[in-house]
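G., the chain you wanted modeled:
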Amino acid sequence: MTTTEIQRGLEGVNVAATKLCTIDGQKGQLIYAGYDIYDLAEHASFEETAYLLWNLDLPTSKQLSDLNALLIEERPLSDLNRTLIHELAGKCLPMRGLEICVTALGALDPRASDFSQEQLKWTAARLTARMPSVVAAFHRQRQGLDILAPRDDLGHAANFLYTLTGEEPSELQAKVFDVAMTLHAEHEMNASTFSAIVTASTMSDMYSAIASAIGTLKGPLHGGANSAVFEMLEEIGDESNIESHIEAMLSRGERVMGIGHRVYKTTDPRAIILEELGEQLAETSPDRKYFDLSRKVRDYLAERLSGRPLYPNVDFFSASVYRMLGIPHDLYTPIFAVARIAGWSAHLLEQYADNRLVRPNAVYAGEKFRAYEPIEARGQGESSTPR
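Predicted structure as tokens:
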């Protein structure tokens, strides 16, 4: 690359070496620290997956027990988190509330600037435990419901569903959500991960880096896509409306969210797994129509765009799966963050261990050597101040 060549969106630019994740977009492969995502989704819990990302090895029974104990210990909200949730719920979007609460959590941690690997792993586990509690409490507060205390007898995924809905999930519901979190836990150098690394490279603390990642994930071209998929399904409403709705979207030049991916040139393996899980949930769910509609939309697009096929990504089926789990669609992106904290923090462990300030260049394309004019000589002009 020449010094004046610009790679828009940094596509194709390598910014770091990592042992955490690799993606083969042509083959549709996703690997976490050497383990295929299909293998982890079938056999490993989210807690095991998080440990794998932080330590590059699956845990022993004792190591997993110790991690579970730490997660249980760190689940309860702080008084400051409760105060913030009380003030923010109903006044801002859940992602903004989560971002603020993560920053507040760091503000009260006297060890926030301890960059030892041991302390960073503790912080990663603390954030992993606390973020689901924040999201669940935020939702219940805005609904005028009591915030539920976490239950020590439930695993990470089941506890979140319980504190969100007030009902203990079935074994299938807990399993589906656990797998969904594993699928979202890590995805190499995506936009939010890069944002976290940029912040950490200044030697700012992990809490600030994660807040940066949450702010980045909030955008509809990244984590917000799954919510947009559900909104589309609601607008379509019925199979008979698929053709007219999709054709209207395409004629306006709009993207069909959840279809296509910057990396995958075939179906995202996570979408394949979520579709299989969705089929199991749909057997007993009163909201199965959204799952069935997703499949019909997928099939219509496959036929309509057969000359240039676009394949579902993880967001496409997560929308209907989360609906069948009783999760409101504006919580889909916060839930993405609740899972991705494992991968974000794992990348930060790598960054802090071998840090270098991220400071790219920009190619100047403006005018040069302009002469200063006194303000009296510049005329009146129209106001350009935003109002």
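Residues 117-142 form the longest helix (26 residues).

Shout if anything looks off.
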